[in-house]
Amino acid sequence: MSTDTAIEPAIDTNHANPPAFDGSKVDRFAHQLIADIGAAMSAVLVHIGDRLGLYRALADGVPLTSTELAAKTGLNERYLREWLHNQAAGGWVSYQPKDGTFTLPAEHALLLADETSPTFMAGGFDFVAAAWADEEILTDAFRTGRGIGWHEHDRRLFTGTERFFRPGYQANLTNNWLPALDGVVDRLEAGISVADVGCGYGAATVQLGQSYPNSTFVGFDYHDASIAAARGRAGAAGVDANVTFEVAGAKEFTGKYDLICLFDCLHDMGDPVGAARHIRAALRPDGVLLVVEPAGADRPEDNHHALGRLFYASSTAICLPGWLAQDGRLGLGNQAGTARLIEVLRDAGFGDVRVATSTPINVIVDARP
Hints:
single chain, alpha/beta, two-stranded antiparallel sheet, about 15% strand
């Protein structure tokens, strides 16, 4: 037989008579795909606009042409013109064709331009940039099942985590979450010892130190680069006297505490039960564990909405790889649901566990020995 004889491909008889298609469904999904591709491409431009201060330059609500924005920012007019029309097409800025001006509505500026606003969300686009930078190692992880440690990710994941979560902490931590824990605010004002486990860049730790100068706070994280950044932020905020940071994991940190906080990190731990058990042992007899976690329904199908889509995306790209890189590998994922979180804490030995309060983004759990 000749070695160069063509081989006919096998016929897939399952598709010999393809099913009839609903053309309207095809059309609707095509429109969704166009919108999603446009959003994905535009995310790069949002990130650039955030980095270059374009939203801040537009934040006063004064209508500007691309030429005026170029003069105000020192950037190239032609690039800005195209960027502005992209933003207008997405409804992020408004366009006035009569004079060729663009305006950032005040309501949008709250989410895009003011990092002190409790609604600021532009930091989330750091996550998007980090995810694309990590695409190759994440693709490989799908093939091999290996984990990806927090320290292995693109650095924008670390800055994005602080920028995205900090506004929520500033809005809720001292105003809503801590007051929902019976007796804790009075104790903080009098002076107690507090640990923030998995502190990252220390946004919540620094906020606590500023709010309760009579108490002492120590932030723990295994990621040495995050601890270095947290120490810098504590120094800049002037809370060195009552806020310190140490490199240690959730099952290795030392000391005894009256209050221990876990901000958006229990679900990232490979052995959350073991970590919670270590935390319980580190609490004094009348101690309290504050757990802040992403809000998620107990049934996965009830998370199939816009926020759930965002959470599952970050869980796939960040949380799942993180706990697969650790011992234990229980891996909750950030949509574990409240019932599963409570089960983990009870398995760790906490006798009194309750949902203290919640927001559309977070569930806040009060756990006591």
